[in-house]
Write a structure and sequence with these properties.
There is one protein chain. By secondary structure, this protein is an alpha+beta fold. It is about 30% helix and about 25% strand. Helix 1 packs across helix 7. The longest helix is centred in the middle third of the chain and has 33 residues. The two termini are about 50 Å apart. Its EC number is 2.4.2.-. Belongs to the ARTD/PARP family.
Amino acid sequence: MAPKRRAKSSTKAGGKKVKEEPEAPPKDKFTSAKEALKATVPQVKGARNPDSFCHLSNAEIHEDYDCMLNQTNIGNNNNKFYVIQVLVSGGKYYCWTRWGRVGESGQNNLAGPSTVDAAIKNFEKKFKDKTKNNWSDRENFVSHSGKYTLIEVDGDQDAEVKVDTVDGGDVKVKTEQHVLPCTLDEATQRLIRFIFNNDMFKEAMTSMNLDIKKMPLGKLSKQQIAKGFEALEQIEAAIKKGERNKLEELTSKFFTIIPHNFGRNRPPIISDDSVLQGKKEMLLVLADIEIAQSLKAESEKAKEEMKDTVPHPFDQNYQSLKCKLSLMDKKSKEFKIIEKYLNATGRKGLTLVDVWEVDRDTEAERFRENDALANRKLLWHGTNVAVVAAILKSGLRIMPHSGGRVGRGVYFASENIKSAGYVCPSNNIGIMFLNEVALGKEYTITQDDSSLRKAPAGYDSVVARGSQEPGFSTYNQKSFLISLFTNVLCELRTFKVACCGRAIGRYVRMCGGVVRGRQQFVKMNRQW
C-alpha cells in the first residue's frame, strides 16, 4: 500500500515546525453558483399583475397581497399550486384564489366584493391555512410537512415584457427616443438574437419539465434558485449515506421549491447519482438563464436612462457580454480547416454555419499564467444553447462530476461527435466551443475514476484515453490556429494500448485559467 501523502510543513521563528493546510481544490460551478445566488442582494419586487385566469375587469393587486404557493408530495402523488391575491376593481375589494395540479389551470374562486379589511383578512387566513405561516412574518418563512411552500418571484408570475420591434429585435424605448442602427454584421446579429431569445429559453426550461408559469423568465428570485441548490445537496448527502428512507421526502421538498410539470404522472424520486447530476445540470442551466435575463434587464435599464438616442438592442446585448466576437470569413483557410476537423470527427448531417473567434475581457491575462505549458490543443466542448450567453460572459467553469468519468473539471473532447452529444439545440441550431486548452503534462487513465478532484502531483491534466483520436501537429505559438490544424487527419488514429473501454477519449482540466478566451465559437445546423 502506498504511503499517505503528508501535508507540507514550514518553520516558524524559533525553529518550531507548523503544519500547513493543504491547498483547497477550486470550487466547482455548482458550489460557485449556489454561493453567488445566496450572496445576491434581494431586489425590490417589480409590479405584479392579477392572475391571468381572473377576468375581473380593470383589476389591480392591492399593495403586496399576492403569493404563489407550491406543494409536492410524492407519496400521495401531489404536485399542486395555490394562488392567493387581494384585488381591487372599481373601488371594491376581492380575494382571488386558484388551485390545482402543476401544469393545469385548476379551479378558482373570487370572494367579494367586500371591504379592504375583509379581503385582507380572507387572504391572510388562507395563507396561514395553506402554509402554517403568518403573512406578516413571511420574510422568515418556514416550510412545514404537508403544507404549501412560498415561491419567491420578482414581479408578475405571468409577465411578458411588451416591447416594440426594431429590425426584428425586441427593444423597450421611450416614444421620444431614437434607436440607432445596428453596428453588427448580419451573422452576429442573428447570433445575438438567438442566444437572448425568450422562446429559446422557454423551450429549454420546458424540455427539463420546469413549469415556466411558476418560474417565469427573469422573475424567479435568485434566492429561490439557491434554495433548490441546497435541497439537492441534502439529497446528495442522503444518497451517499445510504439513507434511502429520506429520499422521498427530500425529493418532494426539491420539487416544491423548483416547480416541475409532470402532468398526471407521479413525480419521480431522485434516488441515484445519475438522476441527481441531471438535476444539478438543470439548476445550473436555470441559473445561467437567469444570468442572461439579468444582462437583458441591465441593458433595458441603461436604455431607460438615456435621453435622445439609444443603441440598437442587439448592440446593447452584445456589449453586455463584455467580449469581442469576430466572425470568421467562410473563404478563409482557418474556416476550411475547422470545417475539415468537424467533418472528420463529427456525426453525419452537421453543417457548419458560422464561426466566431472569441476574445473575452481579461481572460488573455489569466491564460498567460500557463504560458509555460507547451502541450496545447484545440478541443471541442458541447453545451446547451440556453447557457451560451452566460459562458460568453463568464467563461467555462468547473462542473461537478461532468460526464461522470473523470470527476469534476472542465471537459473537452478531440472528436466532435463526443461533444455534440452534450449539445442541446433550439430549432435545429446547435452551438459548440472549440477551445485552446493548455493541457501541459497529461495523466492518462485507463478506467473511469469519478473521485478525481485534481490532476496527480507532477501532472496538469487528466486524459481518459479512448481507442482512437485525430492526429495533432506541434503547437506553434506564432501561428497557433494554422499550425495546429494543418495536419489534422481525415482518418482517425487507432491506439493499440489500454484505454477506457470507449472509442472516444475525454480531456479534463481541473483548475481555472487554462482555457483561452480566444476560442472558436461554432454554430451548426442539423436534424438533431
